[in-house]
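hi!! sorry for the late reply, been swamped w classes. u asked for the two structures so here they r. pasted raw, havent cleaned anything up. first the sequence of the first protein and right below it the tokens
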Amino acid sequence: ISNLVESERLPSIIKDILKESDKRVLTETIVGKSPLVGRTIGGSRVEVYTKARILAINRKKKWVFEVNDDTRLMNKDLLVAVGNVEAEKILKDVANGKIKKIWEKIF
């Protein structure tokens, strides 16, 4: 987390939140073959299946902090989420397209 907090990719408000968090901070970039591309957070049920909660998205060098179930996920979005170690692995596999259908992997 300390390396992520020092990262220039994150704005100060996220850095402050990360310093206080007792959960693991996850960052993953969505690639074109991911089942998340073009789907909403709620429609993909990403939190249900990965157990990772998306807090923010960096899209085309702009931060989106007001994410909700209607937020559409796009190719090359950098996701900032919180979750456990297993959530990190699943989110990574979904974001990079290793898991083709998000519902293939359920806890």
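now the second protein. again sequence first, tokens right under
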Amino acid sequence: QLDALLADMEARVDDPPAFVAHSIAFHGAVVKASHSRALIAQFRMLNDLLAAERQRERDGVLTRRVVARHRNLRDLIAAGDGDGARALTAYALRDFRRTRMGGNRPL
């Protein structure tokens, strides 16, 4: 399922609304697979914020970077590397906060 969602995202990097919908579906699939109630709750809270920020993207730079990170995450999950997946996710959230939310504001 993650491979299909990645392909859908990649095909829509220049269509922000469609890209965001597929990106959210990718995140949802990862969160669902975690079976973590805490992660599911966090995903629900962050979902609207992330979607609003991604809708701002117009030149495809961010969308292509997101696809690359998602592909890396999929690879870590497929390899059973939970620590690597957590580290990548933590990095992505810090980067999002730094680049899109003005630095030190908490999520």
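hope this helps!! also noticed smth abt the second:
Helices lie at 2-10, 16-34, 37-55, 61-78, 82-100.
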